[in-house]
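dumping the sequnces here before i forget
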Amino acid sequence: MNDMDPSLVGANPAEHRLSYFNGTQRKVLVTDSEVPYPDGKLIVSRTDTLGIITQCNQAFIDMSGYAASEILGQPHCLLRHPDMPKAAYADLWATVSSGRKWHGYVKNLRKDGAYYWVHAVVVPNVRDGKIVGYTSVRRKPSRSKVSEALAMYAEMKVKEGV
Amino acid sequence: MTINLTISPDFSPAKIPSWHIFNTWLQRSTGESIHLILFDSFAQQRQAIAEDKIDLIYANPYDAAMLVREKGFVALAHPGGLTDEAIVVVAANSPVQGVEDLLPGIRVASTADPDVNMMGMIMLEPADLCQNNVQSETCTSYTLVAKQLLSGNADVGILPARAFDGLSAMVKNSLRPLVRSEISVVRHMLLIGPKAMASLASLREAILGMDKDEKGAVILNDLGFAAWEASSQEDVEFMIDLVDTLVDQ
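..and the predicted 3d for all of it:
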């Protein structure tokens, strides 16, 4: 079983500027080090309808590298990796905000600049007929699915002109 | 009215007397007339639920969505500190060292326990395995899952972690865990149906105070947990959302 070892073997830090849909930007540190997804665990988080994190489990904290106090109240795009195409997130939000389940393979960014791949499933939390938030559960992906996602996202990034 | 109580069919047969004693204790504590009905299979239990024959149920999390969202059941309580976890095991002498060594076509032995099977299959996903590319064999007991592995009739077994931990040392030493889930938020829950809602307050008071009653505490110990904890409706709604993320897309 993996031990959530955050060590950065072969790290090659670079600073990236991320732009968000609402026009805001932030600088993030990115390295080429992957942290393996721990066997048997699920990363669980909940957000409000605006994507602000309201709840997360210990696996989320361990894998993200942030303290709980740094995560709660922050937008979920805190984990967005610059290698992920904007269109993937646009598809996610369009799907779940229309009341449907979304799933996909996502490269997430850790606080220390390393990354980890997940198989993510997001569902809307419907209460009394209204969407009141979203639950996201991430699990360990197969390497073949990660390879497929890598190729697809690289192509999408080219189309996005990045 | 008589309240029909049932227990998720994945309970250990050794616990049957304890559930009957629980039922007797609950009747005496509340003054309600409660009838315990045990089913041999999830299919039989779901049929009874569909026919509105069940009023109180210790439910498998996999069935919670149907009970709450289709049948109007309400969360009452859950066993404190007890969550549902699964374990994927192979025979001790198997050449398989990790999940990623497993190949399509393998024979997977499990029981009909829906949430444990769901969690077990998720743990096989890193090897690109799913229900469509494995040979599934449903056994009638956890012991038979172990026997299928030991006799070479199955390559992998999926068990509730608690059932694996409860196997004899000899059987356990003949098996080797590949991966154990650490999900922590999926659990059985006690749910009450619409017809029994008039009894909600008395049932809740008795159940949440059961650990403080001398006889109640003994029964809880026999059932395998120390106390019932109150469940809010949002607790069960959250678990339903979570299980929804785990079932097939």
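The first helix of chain A runs from residue 58 to 64.
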